[in-house]
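Subject: sequence -> structure tokens, single chain

Hey, anyone have a minute? Need the predicted structure for the following. Not urgent.
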Amino acid sequence: MQERTEPWDITAQLDELRTQGLWRELRPLDELDGITVRAEGREWINFSSNDYLGLAHSAEMRQALTEGIAKYGGGSGASRLVCGTHRAHAELEEALADFKGTAAALTFSSGFAVALGTIPALMGAGDTIILDKLCHASLVDAARLSGATIRVFPHNHLEKLERLLQTAKGRMLVVTESIFSMDGDAAPLREIAALKAKYGAWLLVDEAHAVGVLGPQGRGLTAELGVNQQVDLHLGTLSKAFGLSGGYLAASRQVIDLLINRARSFIYSTAPPIHLAHALGIILDLIRSDRGDTLRAQVRNHALQTQNLLSGIGIASHANEAAILPVILGEESRAMEISSRLRETGFLIPCIRYPTVARGSARLRITVSALHSAAQIHALGTTLQEALRP
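Reply:
Had a minute. Here:
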């Protein structure tokens, strides 16, 4: 049988990725149980998951999903506007709106889908979108898709943000994250909110890495800083602290009504399974409860312990309550080497490289969970110190 030939040759591109230390591959895991992962007879302690509260494999999660499947079965059968909207979807959105202090909310199949649906639905040619340089790829891609003029300010640089607001044309949208996904640092949200009000802009804040972890009842950094009402568009995921999958946009009733009619990633996607909406409603109640407060306190304690250990071996980290602690190593080859050393000693921390981060800023991205133990964090610090030796 004659071998099928490709219409174009991509061998050179693949070889270039390998040469530059940017090659990636999927590595299936056989088992996950909170913070331990297993594959091919080996076991690692996972310090790379975004399951911050440790809910993904919890007894509460298993019970909520089992109950949801028993009541609703599998898929939803259609898009939300055809016949895929169930009462469980509506109830989850009402609960999310209450959680974020907005009039309404809309759920999507993923956080990426929220950005791709929301920003092009609200902004277009003649408008200006102003993004922090370190905004997530989904926000950048959504801005490009909108057709609006895009302006970028250096990370957390308020003076440059104000200059861009002064010269922007049309409707203006400022886009930032509350806790940045690769650095773990916080945006100066009070100051950004003041600038957006001064110049009549809208403000979108992506709380993917803050919701569930920060703020009263886990409502995020915007709630912790008291700027909830100054944020026009609250974007978040249901795949990190919530332990499941999906995303949401919380905003005014008018904005949500417009998204229902114009957000293409919402209109043309099959609705998420009903049992997921059911389970997410239960998990949201847990996050807002005393149990959620206990889990958040554990995350904060583990983040502080990790910060202190990193500081003790000469690695500076941001002094905040986020669960993300980067170890910036620079060259891609160096980061891959250290990640491999840690993997050999029982710790799973894949390196983060270009294009996820800028060239020359490859890193290990340590994330802590409520489920980690003090002994595991201490062992990581000792092992990392040894792995960093020349």
